[in-house]
């Protein structure tokens, strides 16, 4: 019998100082800005000495390690209120994601060697609008993110361990649109669409060149449509009938973008009937998920020449009862 056991303990001390301000230049025009300093101190202890055999690890080890990460991040932007119902804006910001240690290291060296922080500069322009006294809200955004040292997870083919490493550079650009409409007679419609082009612009690791490949688990197209109907049943009970349709285009499960790691497009339909304020205390929801019985992978990988993975839940139904006291 092979048994692999990891004993882990980690601590994080994080300190931040920040400020944010919006300055109105006129009744319609404003300038905004902010700055933040963050410092994280991480301590990490891990061993696999209780393992009968280091299945994924290549050796037994008992390691303690420490690391500190700090950064200055900021944002700046402009807003212009065209009319009371229409506003345009433009922002640029600098983001930071702290570095860290491997969750399940395969070797003592992996346990001691932290991965670097991730940094990104984001550019965004958008338009927020209301129509028909707020019955229709429509927001649109164009965005561009420029990553350096992007943190990525990948499966080590030799050890089977999932490691976090830093890609060189990556870019994510796209468009998002959100719509919320109160229609008539209790009917409403919410929807969103996102187009995302995400690729590595510089990523070479262990002899593999992933430059130009798509980032994993990032669909090019994503669409959500959610119609609903709300009505009053009694003086206290409201009923809402709602449905969600979610479409996601194909994605890749890892950085290689090879055929076995491709997930086909997926279509999901969920629905629910909600009764609020029953006896002024209870809420009841009757729900169904994945009503069309869509089947897609939620994870896939390769280890020791074999493919393995997991699939989404099948069609499910349920009842949820909530109470307030």
Plain-language structure description:
This protein is mainly beta. The chain has a domain at about 1-165. The protein is about 0% helix and about 65% strand. It contains 1 helix and 21 strands. The chain has one helix spanning about 110, and strands at about 5-25, 30-45, 60-85, 85-95, 120-130, 135-150, 150-155, 160-165, 170-180, 185-200, 205, 210, 220-230, 240-250, 250, 260-265, 265-280, 280-290, 295-305, 305-310, 315-325. The chain has a 13-stranded antiparallel β-sheet with strand order 1-2-3-4-5-6-9-10-13-14-17-18-21. Strands 7-8 form a two-stranded antiparallel sheet. β9 (about 170-180) and β10 (about 185-200) form a beta hairpin. It is globular, with a radius of gyration of 25 Å. The mean pLDDT is about 90.
Measured on Cα atoms, how large is the radius of gyration?
A: 25 Å
| Outline | globular
Largest sheet: 13 strands, antiparallel
Q: Uncertain regions: pLDDT < 50 for 5+ in a row?
A: none
Distance from first to last alpha carbon: 51 Å
**N-to-C SSE series?**
EEEEHEEEEEEEEEEEEEEEEE
Total DSSP helices: 1
The amount of helix comes to under 10%
Overall pLDDT level: 89
Total E-strand runs: 21
Q: What percent of residues are in strands?
A: over 45%
Task: Name the strands of the widest sheet in spatial order.
Answer: 1-2-3-4-5-6-9-10-13-14-17-18-21
Structural class: mainly beta
In short:
The chain is built from one helix and 21 strands.
Descriptive terms for the model:
1 helix; mainly beta; 325 residues; two-stranded antiparallel ribbon; 13-stranded antiparallel beta sheet
């Amino acid at each position: 019998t092979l048994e692999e056991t990891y004993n882990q303990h980690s601590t994080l001390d994080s300190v931040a100082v920040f400020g944010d301000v919006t300055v109105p230049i006129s009744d319609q025009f404003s300038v905004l800005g902010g700055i933040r300093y963050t410092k994280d101190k991480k301590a990490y202890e891990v061993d696999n000495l209780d393992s009968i055999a280091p299945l994924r690890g290549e050796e037994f080890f008992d390691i303690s390690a420490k690391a500190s990460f700090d950064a200055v991040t900021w944002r700046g932007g402009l807003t212009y209120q065209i009319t009371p119902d229409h506003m345009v804006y433009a922002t640029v910001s600098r983001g930071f994601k702290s570095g860290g240690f491997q969750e399940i290291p395969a070797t003592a060296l992996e346990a001691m060697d932290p991965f670097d922080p991730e940094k990104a500069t984001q550019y965004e322009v958008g338009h927020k609008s209301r129509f028909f006294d707020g019955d229709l809200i429509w927001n649109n955004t164009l965005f561009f993110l420029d990553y350096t040292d992007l943190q990525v997870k990948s499966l080590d083919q030799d050890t089977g361990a999932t490691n976090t490493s830093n890609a060189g550079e990556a870019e994510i650009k796209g468009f998002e649109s959100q719509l919320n409409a109160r229609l008539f007679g209790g009917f409403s419609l919410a929807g969103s669409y996102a187009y995302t082009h995400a690729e590595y612009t510089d990523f070479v690791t262990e002899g593999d060149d992933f430059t130009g490949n798509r980032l994993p688990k990032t669909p090019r197209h994503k669409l959500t449509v959610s119609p609903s109907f709300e009505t009053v049943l009694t003086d206290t009970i409201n009923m809402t009938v709602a449905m969600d349709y979610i479409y996601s285009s194909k994605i890749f499960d890892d950085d290689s973008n090879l055929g076995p790691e491709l997930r086909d497009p997926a279509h999901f339909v969920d629905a629910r009937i909600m009764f609020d304020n029953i006896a002024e205390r209870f809420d009841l929801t009757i729900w169904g998920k994945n009503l069309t019985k869509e089947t897609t992978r939620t994870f896939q990988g390769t280890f020791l020449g074999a493919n393995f993975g997991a699939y989404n839940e099948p069609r499910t139904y349920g009842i949820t009862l909530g109470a307030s006291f």
